[in-house]
TrEMBL record:
Pfam families: Dabb. It comes from Bradyrhizobium guangdongense. This is Stress responsive protein. The lineage of its organism: Bacteria, Pseudomonadati, Pseudomonadota, Alphaproteobacteria, Hyphomicrobiales. InterPro entries: Dabb, Dimeric_a/b-barrel. Residues 19-114 form the Stress-response A/B barrel domain.
């Protein structure tokens, strides 16, 4: 059984192998223009983490284009070498800087972390 640890208030299970970390947010904004600016800010700040955090092997940020009222505004899809790298990311100064710069811009947050399984062709 995998060990469970808490880092920065979040629980992490120790696992070997790559981990996919997906986060979706709903953002503040009274108008479409305000939410568009918020999406751009989130995208720019998180994409700025590329190459700056050991163990972060992939990061992409997508902005919702569906215009349905139940959709999140932004999705972050990232991959880490293992659960230790994901734990280190949670408290990494660059990641914490991004979180601080975003402040209360995010009003809803949904997250899924799961092991990446190799697929056979």
């Amino acid at each position: 059984m995998a060990a469970t640890n808490k880092i920065a208030g979040e629980e992490f299970r120790e696992m070997s192998g790559p981990i996919k970390h997906i986060v979706m947010w709903r953002l503040r904004g009274e108008t479409a223009a305000e939410r568009s600016a918020a999406r751009t800010k989130v995208k720019t700040l998180f994409e700025g983490l590329k190459g700056r955090i050991d163990g972060l092997t992939h990061i992409e940020v997508g902005e919702d284009i569906s215009d349905v009222d139940y959709a999140c505004d932004v999705v972050l899809v990232s991959e880490f070498t293992d659960s230790k790298a994901l734990k280190a990311y949670a408290t990494h100064p660059e990641h914490l800087r991004v979180r601080e710069q975003l402040g209360d811009l995010r009003i809803g947050r949904f997250q899924v972390d799961y092991p990446v399984k190799e697929t056979g062709a």
